[in-house]
């Protein structure tokens, strides 16, 4: 199954989430990263439809929908936390449709001890109304309810959602730490010489047949290979050179072409700074952020 996950609200700018005992915008990511990792470990394709910064609410919403509608999704899930003096969980679908995944997710979260507020009509919610795939917006619980927040566990909430979506779940080690200040890693990286090295590495090690023109076009992006600890070779060396250029510490080994423990730590720190899934795996989303 191909599932889009939208961790609701931005981290900065417009469309910031509710604030109570906890901040909604942080909670959606605590749960969302775990949901994405669990789904990926179970063999499902995940498309991150989250927006971290936007100049307006309309821009934030339209970008989320655009990501969903271009992702060839089977399901779109928007994660939220409620506020306003209530308690419990509610789910919004178009026309209050009680399709199987929505009903299962609701029942699983209720099983954690939260009040059942039901499945409600979300046709007036932009991300429910405007997405092409079957969609649901989950209001997991209330950030301004002491009872709800005392019960809250990101791992248990993610388990309830994942099991409701695909029928089973799995342990997650994904974590989220709210950014405290802009990182030095935020500088742009667009060196054509590095893109040429990347293309050369993909050609020599993986026979991708790319033009080594230093342009990060669609073919080069599509040819990127997922790498993780234990990998060796010229592609790892290019990764390390990019990390070093962004001021991430690789220790005394530097760009040696070996994806060891220091490279793993650097990748995880980069993922944390960019609010990505912190799994030390350099896949499509991490490559995209590295080469942005």
TrEMBL record:
Protein origin, superkingdom: Bacteria
Record's signal peptide: none
SUPFAM superfamilies listed in its UniProt record: PGBD-like, Zn-dependent exopeptidases
Gene3D superfamilies, per database record: PGBD-like superfamily/PGBD (1.10.101.10), Zn-dependent exopeptidases (3.40.630.40)
Residues in MurNAc-LAA domain copies: 65-166
SMART domains associated with the record: Ami_3
Protein's recorded name: N-acetylmuramoyl-L-alanine amidase
Lineage: Bacteria, Bacillati, Bacillota, Clostridia, Eubacteriales
């Amino acid at each position: 199954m191909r599932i889009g996950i939208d961790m609701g609200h931005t981290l900065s700018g417009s469309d910031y989430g509710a604030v109570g005992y906890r901040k909604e915008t942080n909670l959606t990511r605590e749960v969302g990263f775990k949901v994405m990792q669990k789904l990926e470990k179970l063999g499902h394709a995940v498309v991150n439809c989250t927006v971290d910064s936007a100049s307006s609410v309309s821009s934030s919403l339209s970008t989320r929908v655009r990501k969903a509608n271009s992702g060839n999704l089977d399901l779109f899930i928007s994660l939220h936390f409620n506020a306003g003096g209530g308690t419990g969980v509610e789910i919004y679908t178009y026309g209050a449709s009680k399709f199987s995944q929505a009903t299962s997710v609701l029942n699983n979260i209720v099983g954690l001890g939260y009040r059942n507020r039901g499945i409600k009509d979300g046709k007036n919610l932009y991300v429910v109304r405007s997405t092409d795939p079957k969609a649901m917006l989950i209001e997991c619980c209330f950030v301004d309810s002491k009872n709800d927040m005392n019960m809250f566990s990101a791992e248990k909430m993610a388990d309830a959602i994942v099991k409701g979506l695909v029928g089973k779940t799995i342990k997650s080690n994904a974590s989220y730490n709210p950014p405290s200040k802009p990182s030095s890693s935020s500088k742009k990286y667009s060196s054509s010489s590095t893109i040429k090295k990347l293309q050369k590495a993909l050609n020599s090690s993986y026979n991708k047949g790319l033009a080594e023109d230093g342009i990060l076009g669609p073919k080069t992006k599509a040819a990127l290979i997922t790498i993780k600890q234990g990998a060796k070779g010229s592609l790892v060396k290019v990764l390390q050179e990019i990390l070093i250029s962004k001021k991430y510490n690789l220790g005394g080994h530097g760009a040696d072409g070996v994806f060891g423990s220091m490279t793993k730590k650097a990748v995880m720190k980069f993922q944390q700074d960019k609010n990505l899934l912190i799994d030390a795996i350099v896949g499509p989303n991490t490559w995209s952020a590295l080469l942005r």
